Structure formats: structure tokens, C-alpha cells
Amino acid sequence: MGSPCHFALFDLQPDFRVDLDLLAARYRELARHVHPDRFADAAEREQRLALEQSAQLNEAYQVLRSAPQRARYLLTLRGAELPLEVTVQDGEFLLQQMHWREELEDLQDSADLAGVASFKRRLKAAQDELNESFAVCWDDPQQREQAERLMRRMQFLDKLSFEVRQLEERLDD
């Protein structure tokens, strides 16, 4: 028996646009029901089942709340076979990546907190734009290649965003 679709767990339709507040509320509600502590006095089988359900719920929530992971998940639901390590064969985007990386290194070298904040805002705008583009084309078989390209870009920006937050924390200390 396969595990239920992540979206079905939260009683949502598979779509890229997800109400994150609703997702979080449903997650908290479901997590209370399957929390292993509620089964502390139950039989071993019930405890194990609660632990499995809790783990499955946590994984589904992590995937659906992250735009790049949600995009990848939707594409796999549609039958795309995506390698975990993806290389972006996208010349234009590779140049953009190099530019962002150089800018981030300069900001790190100069310890420019205001510059980091500005960089973060531009990165967020680029992520929002990618998310919107993906939302428009993910479900169209004619645009599968474009959706996969956008998903890879989203993954890169997500990683870059994490690095920006780390830099921000180091500069804040």
C-alpha cells in the first residue's frame, strides 16, 4: 500500500498555490492527533503506527511549505523523473548565479548589513517571480521542460537564500 499523497493528508487539491496559513493550521491539528505522546500507554503496534504517521505528516508538511520542494513534488506526481542532484543547463541563469555569488562574496567581505538586506529583498522578489511562473505552467504537459527548469532555479534560489540568512546571522553577532 502506497502512502497517501501529501496534499490529501491535509485535505488539499494538488496545486502549487497553497494557503500556507491553512496548511500550518491543519498540520497542527493533525499533529495533535498522531503525536506519539498520546500513545505512550498504547500497545507497541499502536505506538509504532503513531510514530510512522507522525513522521509521514512531518515530511508532508516540510515538502508542501517549501515552494521548491512543493514544485518538485508536483512534477513527480505528474510522472516527471527528476534526479536529486540537478545541474542547471541554463546559460542565462548560470550567469545570473555567478553574479549573485560574487555580489554575496563582496557583501561578506565588506560586512555590509544594509547591502545584505537589499540583496535579500531582491532575492525574495526573484523567488516570488519564479514561483508565479511555475504556478502558471506546472500542470501543462506542453510546458513540462519549462516547469522543470523553473523548479531547478527555485532550488538554487532557496539555497542562496539560506546562505544569505547565515551571512546575516554572522554579521549580526
TrEMBL record:
GO cellular component, as recorded: iron-sulfur cluster transfer complex
Pfam families named among the record's database cross-references: DnaJ, HSCB_C
Transmembrane segments: none
GO MF, one example: protein-folding chaperone binding
A biological process from GO: [2Fe-2S] cluster assembly
Keyword terms of this UniProt record: Chaperone
SMART domains for the chain: DnaJ
Domain J, chain residue ranges per copy: 5-77
Subunit structure: Interacts with HscA and stimulates its ATPase activity.
Family from the record: Belongs to the HscB family.
Primary role: Co-chaperone involved in the maturation of iron-sulfur cluster-containing proteins. Seems to help targeting proteins to be folded toward HscA.
Protein name: Co-chaperone protein HscB homolog
